[in-house]
Amino acid sequence: MNKIRVIGGRPLTGKVRISGAKNAALVVIAASVLARGESIIENVPHIRDVEILLDILRGLGAEANWLTDDTVSIRVPDNINHRTPYEKAKLLRASNLLLGSMAGRKGVADISLPGGCNIGSRPMDLHLKGLQLLGFETRLEHGFIKARAGTLHGRDIYLDFPSVGATENIMMAASVVPGQTIIENAAKEPEVVDLANFLNAMGARIRGTGTDVIKIEGVPELKGIRHAVIPDRIEVGTFMTAAAITRGQVVLENVIPTHVQPIIAKLRESGAKVREKGDCIEVIGASRIIAVDLKTMPYPGFPTDMQSQFMALLSLAEGTSVIVENVFENRFQVADELKRMGAKIKVEGHTAVVKGVPRLYGTCVKASDLRAGAALVLAALAAEGETEISQIHHIFRGYENLVEKFTSIGADLQLI
Ligand code: UD1
Q: Does the Cβ of 125 fall within 6 Å of ligand 1?
């Protein structure tokens, strides 16, 4: 299984149930390291990134088992090893989320510098600054970030950028550091709120998530609990865009509509009809796609994780769209692959100018990262003829049952 073959040109119709959020599941699994006793986590997607993180935990000495298709049980003993192995960590950027939880639980963490999507340099200076302010000594040695507890106390921590990972790592460590920590200019993403709900149910005292000031009162210890992960807003966005690009009609179930408002707003601007009904969203694609300008921003701005999929959509718009990428410096790699399919895109620094064309054509393309892979699937579904997408391991890092879900709404795609 190393390619996806897509025959394009079919409007997608039907219903798709959205899985649990990759980025919430990963951080909640990492946070379970802080718990004494068993954590049971529901609505966890079966995706490669989750499997790798569970494998890392098992390798360190935790018990991590699937109880059902989407429920995981995790028990982390006191004597868990604190050193994540390079061989696994290099596969997964989110392995860096073990820094805060391991440092909080054990007072010591050696985290191999993480891998993950090739979409920019993705430094960890803000994570380290936060831990240092809490009283951890940190240093970089032989490819590992090493954290050692000194005299720990809550502090005011200002983030120069509202980094999702830094906010999460600091929240996890500060939950069990004595005194009050205040994170200013914190990330407001729904996954940060989900993490706080998980930690608070474990006994933590965190207020203000969802705003840019988060207050944490440290508690001595946290206990294992049961928690259900929020739905994946990027999977929602990807299927909504699939409906729009194929001029189809798709209903998405198990959605929190407030989490996808920036995506809905841009889809409507592009001509699609979007209806919200409780925890469902229906998208009806328009026959004419209208050019739209967009800028990626931290939440509640337009998500960088949806930028590539929109580039595919806007490649088929009437008129010229301008996309500005403000979060990651190297996230336009999909443009070259879309150009192979007939798109007209000019990239200059952080800006891409997309001149819409009447049609895209199937050809051989390769996924350079997770969301670029999703964008190529969307482009292929709308293109004339057959497309073969290679390097699809990137796609399976983050989408559960992608082939089955698209096939169930009328797409002609298969693994080869
Ligand atoms: C998380 C998501 C990812 C999403 C991203 C932005 C997970 C597992 N991944 O990644 O899908 O695309 O948020 O919404 O949740 N930065 C620094 N210094 C730091 C940390 C970050 O300069 O110490 C910069 C990064 O280089 C990047 C920007 O901040 O330019 C955003 O990164 P961040 O919010 O930290 O993203 P991740 O947590 O890595």
A: yes
